């Protein structure tokens, strides 16, 4: 799902490819559209700012390209279809067959522990948010990059900090998206304690 031309729209998986430059040592990686919760809330939260477009992209869902291509082949052959087909006089859902076949699959321990081949050394990861718009009559791009050498650590640390803040009464109880509930500067400062660093850059277009 993306927010495009002021409305939410569904896109096909593995579309919207583009090469994107991340901070060193991550470098240039191919990115594609993916479903993510930020897209559901940011256009609503910042509606008064005139948000016209919002999307989320990822590098092969964080997996090796080869793994994604194997899954795509299965989907292309129809193994993701829920509509039953008749086999020996009995209706069978291709998707149910796929789930049953893969449900007990355990990958080799070496492959399971090894980082995906498309990942930079030491599991370096950068999560980037770009905001493009007009300010004082000029086109401006803000880039917020959160970099860590500890891979998936931000996935666990971010909600842990939010839970602590909630317990300390620093967050108002209720259901709110992160961009509303958390004070960003204080939040990013606390991430630095576990070697997750955020840098903001601003580019003016003439």
Topology:
Blueprint: E1 2-4, E2 7-9, E3 18-21, E4 28-33, H1 38-45, E5 53-54, E6 57-58, H2 65-76, E7 85-87, E8 90-92, H3 94-102, H4 109-113, E9 125-135, E10 138-148, H5 153-167, H6 178-181, H7 184-191, E11 196-205
Antiparallel strand pairs: 1-2, 1-5, 3-4, 4-6, 7-8, 9-10, 10-11
Identify the overall geometry. Answer: globular
Which class of secondary structure composition applies to the elements?
alpha+beta
Radius of gyration: 21 Å
Query: Ends: how far apart?
Result: 32 Å
* SS summary, helix count: 7
The beta-strand count equals: 11
Strand order of the largest sheet: 2-1-5
Helices and strands, in order, run as: EEEEHEEHEEHHEEHHHE
Give the proportion of residues in helices.
25-40%
Description:
The model has no long low-confidence stretch (mean pLDDT 89). This protein has helices spanning 38-45, 65-76, 94-102, 109-113, 153-167, 178-181, 184-191, and strands at 2-4, 7-9, 18-21, 28-33, 53-54, 57-58, 85-87, 90-92, 125-135, 138-148, 196-205. The protein has a domain at 119-206. The chain is an alpha+beta fold and 206 residues long. The protein is globular. 4% of the residues are buried. The strands form 4 sheets. A 3-stranded antiparallel sheet has the order 2-1-5, covered by helices on one side. Strands 3-4-6 form a 3-stranded antiparallel sheet, with no helix packed on it. A 3-stranded antiparallel sheet has the order 9-10-11, covered by helices on one side.
